């Protein structure tokens, strides 16, 4: 059951206050801009309305409003007593949903970075009842700082995709992104990490450039673009790198880049940024990079890791299709982390022993043996 007084307070104030909060956020952003950028931003803002705000910005503004209101009018929500029972990462280390127990009552608490923890659920007789009534299921898995919840049809959803949980007293939680099963959810986490792997990205981009016969030796370097023009070979860039002049051809490049260079002669920019704005390169690279990520995730040998669910925590090893091989019994989460540390130390010790044996074997010297006549 939601807190009706909080719901009425939020709903009555939301329409009149939300726009002003959005304006305050925009003003705070503009303070960091130089005068020229500020003037350009002001011109653009005259043509924009509230729809120009991203979903993330509006969501954060809504939470800022909710937080300010309960801080002022419902300080009892910040008076938290009880013992820690379970923690569910919402946005990795930045925000967490806790379950606490005080006597025979279970309740949920939300803690966001730089803000005080506050209660976001009514009290329930059990942890399972709290999760079921709040999120629609008591089946969950915590995997690599992500919290997934599994519904009756086997599909899963993540708290990371939807931070509405922190408004639970005012708004019932509704799931957004869903995965067909928990294996797909795990695979998503692995692929998201690979997307941000700078080594993999650079290797993939280098191969994509080779397909277009574009020199890859400028990757990761800052160049000065002197001139840009179109000819029969595509878009021609005259640039200077390390005081050396050279020309580079790209198949296609966005008009905004043409204008930037023409308006800013001698513009310095990362070469990676230039080629990724070439439309044909960008499209080809994104498709190629997606293939590379899929291939890498299938072939990747994962380390042992702690995985937690409603039963407990265990040590498991992930396969390329998102399935997990359970290699230990269930422990408490703290004990599972300890056992994982012991396992990793044992593995490292065995690897050192193997290296030492190989070093001894390669260091053996054989003397020539002659038979006596």
SSE topology:
Elements (H helix, E strand, L loop, with lengths): L3 H27 L4 H12 L8 H19 L9 E7 L5 E8 L2 E8 L5 E2 L7 H9 L3 E5 L2 E5 L5 E3 L19 E2 L2 H14 L2 H14 L10 E10 L2 E8 L2 E7 L4 H9 L3 E4 H6 L2 H21 L4 E6 L3 E6 L5 E3 L6 H30 L11
Helix pairs in contact: 1-3, 5-9, 6-9
Q: Main attributes?
A:
alpha+beta, 15 strands, 43% helix
Record field, number of beta strands: 15
The coarse overall form would be globular
Q: Which band does the percent of strand residues land in? A: 15-25%
Low-confidence stretches: 13-22, 31-36, 45-50
The SSE order reads HHHEEEEHEEEEHHEEEHEHHEEEH
User: What oligomeric assembly is this protein in?
Assistant: single chain
SS content category: alpha+beta
**If strands are numbered along the chain, what order do they take across the biggest sheet?**
8-7-6-5-13-14-15
Instruction: Summarize model confidence as the mean pLDDT.
Output: 81
Q: Roughly how many Å apart are the termini?
A: 102 Å
Count of DSSP-assigned helices: 10
Indicate the percent of residues in helices. 40-55%
Radius of gyration: 28 Å
User: What kind of sheet is the major sheet?
Assistant: 7 strands, antiparallel
Describe this structure in words.
The protein has helices at 4-30, 35-46, 55-73, 127-135, 182-195, 198-211, 255-263, 271-276, 279-299, 333-362; strands at residues 83-89, 95-102, 105-112, 118-119, 139-143, 146-150, 156-158, 178-179, 222-231, 234-241, 244-250, 267-270, 304-309, 313-318, 324-326. The strands form three sheets. The chain has a seven-stranded antiparallel β-sheet. With 373 residues, the protein is an alpha+beta fold. Helix 5 (182-195) crosses helix 9 (279-299). The model is unreliable at 13-22, 31-36 and 45-50 (pLDDT under 50). The N and C termini lie far apart (102 Å).
């Amino acid at each position: 059951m939601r807190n009706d007084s909080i719901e009425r307070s939020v709903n009555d104030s939301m329409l009149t206050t939300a726009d002003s909060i959005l304006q305050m956020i925009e003003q705070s952003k503009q303070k960091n801009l130089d005068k020229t950028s500020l003037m350009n931003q002001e011109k653009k803002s005259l043509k924009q309305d509230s729809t120009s705000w991203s979903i993330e910005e509006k969501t954060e503004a809504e939470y800022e409003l909710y937080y300010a209101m309960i801080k002022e009018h419902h300080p009892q929500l910040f008076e938290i007593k009880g013992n820690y029972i379970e923690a569910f990462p919402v946005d990795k280390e930045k925000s967490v949903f806790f379950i606490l127990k005080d006597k025979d009552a279970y309740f949920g608490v939300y803690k966001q970075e730089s803000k005080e923890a506050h209660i976001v659920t009514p009290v329930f007789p059990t942890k399972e009842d709290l999760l079921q009534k709040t999120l629609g299921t008591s089946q969950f898995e915590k995997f690599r700082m992500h919290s997934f919840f599994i519904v009756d049809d086997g599909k899963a959803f993540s708290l990371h995709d939807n931070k509405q949980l922190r408004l639970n007293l005012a708004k019932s939680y509704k799931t957004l992104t869903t995965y067909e099963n928990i294996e797909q959810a795990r695979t998503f986490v692995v692929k998201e990490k690979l997307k941000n792997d700078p080594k993999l990205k650079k290797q993939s981009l280098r191969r994509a450039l080779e397909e277009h016969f574009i020199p890859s030796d400028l990757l990761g370097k800052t160049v000065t673009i002197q001139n840009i023009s179109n000819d029969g070979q595509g878009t021609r860039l005259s640039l200077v790198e390390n005081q050396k002049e050279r020309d580079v051809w790209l198949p296609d490049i966005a008009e905004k880049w043409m204008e930037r260079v023409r308006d800013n002669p001698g513009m310095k920019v990362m070469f990676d940024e230039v080629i990724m704005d070439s439309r044909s390169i960008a499209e080809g690279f994104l498709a190629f990079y997606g293939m590379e990520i899929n291939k890498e995730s299938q072939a990747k040998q994962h380390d042992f890791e702690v995985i937690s669910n409603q039963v407990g925590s265990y040590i498991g090893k992930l396969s390329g299709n998102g399935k997990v091989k359970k290699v230990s019994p269930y422990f408490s989460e703290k004990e599972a982390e300890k056992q994982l540390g012991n396992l990793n130390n044992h593995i490292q010790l065995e690897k050192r022993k193997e290296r030492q044996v190989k070093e001894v074997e390669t260091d053996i010297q054989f003397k020539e043996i002659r038979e006596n006549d």
